[in-house]
Design a protein that fits this description.
Blueprint: E1 2-9, E2 12-14, E3 19-22, E4 26-28, E5 33-35, E6 66-70, H1 71-81, E7 94-97, E8 109-112, E9 116-123, H2 128-134, H3 139-146, E10 151-157, E11 159-161, E12 167-171, H4 179-186, H5 204-215
Parallel strand pairs: 6-7
Antiparallel strand pairs: 1-4, 1-7, 2-3, 5-11, 6-10, 8-9, 8-12, 9-10
Length: about 220
C-alpha cells in the first residue's frame, strides 16, 4: 500500500456554485508536502500546505483535512466514462494504490511515510462543483449509486509526505462502520443511520444526524 501521488489544488473559477473559486482541480506535485491539522471549518484551511477550499461552509477543517481516493476506483470510472482520469481529478489530495479506501473503518488510522498519521473520519458527499468539473450530466446520481466515495481524514500526527510513501494501517477500531456504509446511510439508505453511532470517530454532525434518526 502506498501513495501514487500527492495532489494540490489549482484555484479556478467556480460557475457551478456561484463561488469565486474552487480548489477541485488538484494536480500531483513533486517533493515533500507538509501535513498539519487545519483547525475548525470556516477558514478554508485544509491539511496539506499549498492547498485550500473555497466553499468554507461545506468543506475544510479538521474533519475534512485530507481527502483520499483509490487509483483502482479511478480506473473503474475510466472504463465507465470512457476517458482518462488523472490522479487528483476527483479533487483528492492522496491517490492511493493497494488500499481499500471505501472499506476503511471510521477511526482507522494510517501511517504515511515515517511521521504522518491520519485518521479516517467520514465519506465524501458529491456536490454541484464535482458534477460541473467532470462535465457529465447526472454525475451526482451515478456517483451516489456506485457508493465508492473516497475518504476524508483528520491529522493525528503532522509531518511531510510525498509520492511513493508507504501506507500502513496502524489501528482498526472494533466496529463495522466503513466509509462506504457512512456514505450509503447519508445518501440513499437513511435506515442505516442508527448503525453509525458505534463509530466514535465520526464527526459530530454525522453522529447528531444518526442520533435523531434513532430517537425520532
Amino acid at each position: 500500500m502506498n501513495l501514487l501521488s500527492v495532489n494540490i489544488g489549482k484555484p479556478r473559477p467556480n460557475p457551478w456554485k456561484g463561488l469565486r473559486a474552487t480548489g477541485i482541480d488538484k494536480r500531483p506535485v513533486d517533493g515533500p508536502v507538509a501535513v498539519t491539522a487545519p483547525g475548525p471549518k470556516g477558514t478554508g484551511a485544509v491539511g496539506l500546505a499549498g492547498d485550500r477550499v473555497y466553499d468554507v461552509q461545506h468543506h475544510g477543517g479538521s474533519d475534512q483535512a485530507v481527502y483520499a481516493y483509490a487509483r483502482e476506483d479511478l480506473d473503474r470510472w475510466e472504463r465507465e466514462l470512457g476517458r482518462p482520469l488523472a490522479n487528483g481529478v476527483f479533487g483528492e489530495n492522496l491517490t492511493t494504490l493497494g488500499l481499500d479506501v471505501n472499506g476503511a473503518l471510521i477511526g482507522e488510522r494510517w501511517r504515511i511515510g515515517p511521521d504522518v498519521v491520519l485518521e479516517v473520519s467520514c465519506s465524501r458527499i458529491p456536490c454541484g462543483t464535482f458534477q460541473g468539473w467532470l462535465g457529465r450530466e447526472g454525475w451526482i446520481k451515478r456517483f451516489t449509486q456506485a457508493a465508492v466515495p473516497g475518504a476524508y481524514l483528520r491529522v493525528i500526527a503532522p509531518g511531510d509526505i510525498r509520492a511513493a510513501d508507504p501506507v500502513e494501517i496502524v489501528h482498526r477500531p472494533d466496529h463495522d462502520v466503513t466509509v462506504a456504509l457512512v456514505f450509503r446511510a447519508m445518501t440513499l439508505e437513511p435506515d442505516l443511520l442508527p448503525r453509525l453511532l458505534v463509530a466514535d470517530a465520526l464527526p459530530q454532525e454525522g453522529r447528531d444526524l444518526a442520533r435523531r434518526r434513532t430517537t425520532g
